[in-house]
């Protein structure tokens, strides 16, 4: 760790402000094509745990659906300090591991599937329409975690990411591309988060 990184780390640790309990990262399939991309992801997991994060969610935006099986195989084999759950578009099983990875499973599709399941419950008579609330929707989401902090590298757009869960998230955009993402960039995101006043829609 360099001098500047140690300086940032000290500021983060000495701050009275809370650190995010759930951190989400938005990257693209192209980000994972670069040399060392998966090693950077492994380090990201280590940094998140080191600085108090309980849940990490990674959303990989995918343009070429044929790349999904390869991405799934690679991401399921990365080294991480905690259990990993990887989900792809056809997998509707809830991701309940400390590290959750979505490969091409867009937020709109996830939300639409949740609504469809609720409609099926109503049609089957097991759910009254008046009982449908936020909690009922969340029970049917693949990724139930609500990120405190969402980090997007390389560009200022979220790529159809967790549209329900991230409604009150703090968004952090960095011009740094994923292949150049370092500890100092993560620490800067944490400092930015600590300096914000969260309003949760109020």
Automatic annotation (TrEMBL):
Coiled-coil stretches: none
Keyword Metal-binding: no
KW Transferase (keyword) present: yes
Annotated keywords: Transferase
Organism ancestry: Archaea, Methanobacteriati, Methanobacteriota, Stenosarchaea group, Halobacteria
Domain of life: Archaea
Pfam family, one: Prenyltransf
Gene3D superfamilies linked: Decaprenyl diphosphate synthase-like
Protein name: Undecaprenyl diphosphate synthase family protein
């Amino acid at each position: 760790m360099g001098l500047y990184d140690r300086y940032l780390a000290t500021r983060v640790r000495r701050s009275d402000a809370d650190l995010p309990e759930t951190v989400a990262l938005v990257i693209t399939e192209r980000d994972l094509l670069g040399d060392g991309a998966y090693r950077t992801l492994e380090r990201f997991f280590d940094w998140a745990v080191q600085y108090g994060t309980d849940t990490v969610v990674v959303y990989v935006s995918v343009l070429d659906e044929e790349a999904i099986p390869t991405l799934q195989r690679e991401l399921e084999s990365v080294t991480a300090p905690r259990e990993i759950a990887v989900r792809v578009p056809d997998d509707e099983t809830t991701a309940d591991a400390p590290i959750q990875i979505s490969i091409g499973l867009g937020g709109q599709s996830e939300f639409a599937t949740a609504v469809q399941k609720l409609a099926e419950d109503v049609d089957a008579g097991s759910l009254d329409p008046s009982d449908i609330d936020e909690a009922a929707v969340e029970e049917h989401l693949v990724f139930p975690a609500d990120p405190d902090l969402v980090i997007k590298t390389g560009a200022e757009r979220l790529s159809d990411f967790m549209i329900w869960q991230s409604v009150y998230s703090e968004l952090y955009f960095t011009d740094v591309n994923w292949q150049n993402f370092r500890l100092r960039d993560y620490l800067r995101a944490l400092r930015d988060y600590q300096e914000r006043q969260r309003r949760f829609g109020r």
